[in-house]
Amino acid sequence: MQPSGAKDTQLRESNSQKVHPQPMEEAANQNPEAVEAMVSRIFTNISSLKSAYIQLQSAHTPYDPDKIQAADKLVISELKNLSELKHFYREHNPKPVCVSPQDSRLAVEIQEQQSLLKTYEVMVKKFQSEIQNKDSEILQLQQQIQEASQKRVKLEKNLKLRGLSAKESENAVDENGHFSMDLTPEFFRSAVESAYRAIHDFSKPLINMMKAAGWDLDAAANSVQPDIVYAKRAHKKYAFESHICQRMFSGFQNEFFSVKHDNLAVTTDSFYHQYLALREMDPLDVLGQSPDSLFGNFCRSKYLAVVHAKMEASFFGNLDQRNYVMAGGHPRTAFYQAFLKLAKSIWLLHRLAYSFDPPITVFQVKKGSPFSEVYMESVLQNFSVEENEEKPKVGLMVMPGFYIRGSVIQSQVYLTGVKVTE
Fold this sequence. Notes:
Number of strands: 8
Low-confidence stretches: 9-29, 161-180
């Protein structure tokens, strides 16, 4: 048996081993491979951190915000990895239960936390500086937007005065604010399409008023365009459109549109300026300011040519409006204003045609001419040729064609000898 003193000593040593973990040196001796792997990972992480920091420094010269942000994230990621290694080590190598405030490991940890705190303070200041810079940039951009909006408002006013719509401002004005719209075949083609729509739009109220006045539309269509075989009765509307077109385009090949003038010297630039001046204005307002201008005389002569006296008398029961026009006036009736929209579109097309150098020329297609896909386009989209006909023939021309810079804008024609498949 051991003495009681020896037993107490052995018990205390056993209890001491249960309370206090093994020192680092003993743990290292027990598992040297794990410690070696841990140290290797720490050195690798430090190397990666050093590389990330070098990238962060290089991103400042020259200054590249995107690279700085990417390098900054990389530095933070490596610091995070290093912190995780530290916590992994401490979890597997806990500190002794009884430690004093002067313990070296605790002092190192406090110093590390203070260093991290300083790092975070630097980062916070950096982010605050970036926020201030962004706020300053936002204010500058807001001022630029406000200035650009003010310039746009002024520009739109100038465009409106010159006859251009706001949608065309990007193509019409160059960087210096000068008007530089290109006169292209496509631009003129759009004007031709607008004129054709205007003829179609005016024919509708004209036909409706003829119906209301008790006109025989079949006889009227045969009167203006005789001996035409229509595939459908509804196609007789093209006879009236053709009648309107022939009257409106009469004299188009003349630079003054066969309108009386006082030997005015007209240049290409003035044609274009007249086009711009009238484009966005109400024709009745223009005539109110200059009733005896070239445009005013044009509207007056074309109205008398398109609307026959018998037709007008049947519409209104008198010739008061016609007499008013013949006397030099421009009535504000709904019917005359509908006609002015048509007159404006044809006048604009003429002004634009003579703005080109050389001027655009118009050509017409005679009745009975063989259909040519080069010079003609059928107003009937779906048709087939009848068996007894070798080639479709032109029944009537609805809209003339144009020669422009070596190319052709096709005339619109109604064909006979075809079968409608629609």
